[in-house]
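Changelog-adjacent note: as of this version, every example in the card shows the full chain rather than a window. The one below runs 392 residues end to end.
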Amino acid sequence: MKKAGVLEINQITKYLNGELYGTELSNFEAWLKDEANYELFKEYVVADHYVNLSKSDFNDKDAFLSFLNETQEKKKKAHVFREPVRSIFKYAAIFVGLVFSAIFFYEDKINSIEEKVVEVTLEMSDGSEKRVITNDQDIKILNKLGGTVAIQKNNELTYKSKGLVDLENKDLKEVYNILKIPYGKQFKLVLADGTEIQLNSGSTIKYPVSFAGKAIRRVELEGEAFFNIAKNKEKPFVVVTDKISTEVLGTQFNISHYKNDSFSEVVLVEGSVGVFKGKERFEIGKDILLKPNQKVRLNRSNDEMEVFDIDVYEYISWTRGSLVFYNKSFQDIMKKLERHYDIKVTTVYKEIQEQKFTGEFDVETVDQIMNTFQENTMFNYMFKNNQLIINK
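Full-length structure tokens:
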């Protein structure tokens, strides 16, 4: 029988502990579809369950069935409450990374994404080259001289950090790429410095092919992404938006700024970040320095900022495939559904838009989500040409 290697055991353990998310989770689930791998997984689950039970009258079939039942119960967690009733959520495990959701600072530096993106695309900042990312294996991204700049495999694009990429093009530090992700899809990007970025649906990011010769590692982002920043004390990492900028002083934080939202938010998970606007760099003593489990919200109508203490779980749940909202208005929740499911929502029943809800969904369809809302609030809905219409 096939034996599980160290890496496989590590992935299984992380899966059982709920520590896989995004592309890593998708890859594991694909691996699990293989019959031999599934038997490995089953054998490990049984052994793990036996150790936890620590008893002699152990039945391996009952143990595995018990595990499956526990898993199914966790899947049945879709719920929504109309505020002021609040549901209780567990705190998220600590992630090694950052989450950003932002808009580009200089709109003239990047092509507009007002035209709907339907496929994952990669293009040069000058528009000279554009390609659609497919699910083919090991596709090389080449520079003008034919050298390998990056390698794309399924839903992941990895840029080279050393070697040929630095030797083949002396002007590499001036080369930028733009990656666009459509609604309903996610994608992973690994920059040349080793920074890992999990991009959420409806996101666009502009970044340098290489950070060589740059004093600051600067990226421009619209949409949402989970960042695991490679440490480099000599080169700060800065995310630029149209209203605010965030400089990485620690490791984990979330920025939210979609074009159709009325606010911008920076949420600190762990470490420290400086939030500022109208200049190139953060200044200690003058700009906002966030503490863990705090957020700063900027009102985009008047550019005023305010700091709040929060629970970060809601803001990073999307990396695990969940939609979580605490005391959020119906219209804000519908915006999340639009991005997550690639649909258009039209609310004819205007009175419902400002009603507040708290809830969590993970594997549900749009129909199941709307049915859950109907258990708490009276309204009707219908689908027409990928459009969800909310009526009284």
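Structural remarks: Residues 6-72 form one domain.
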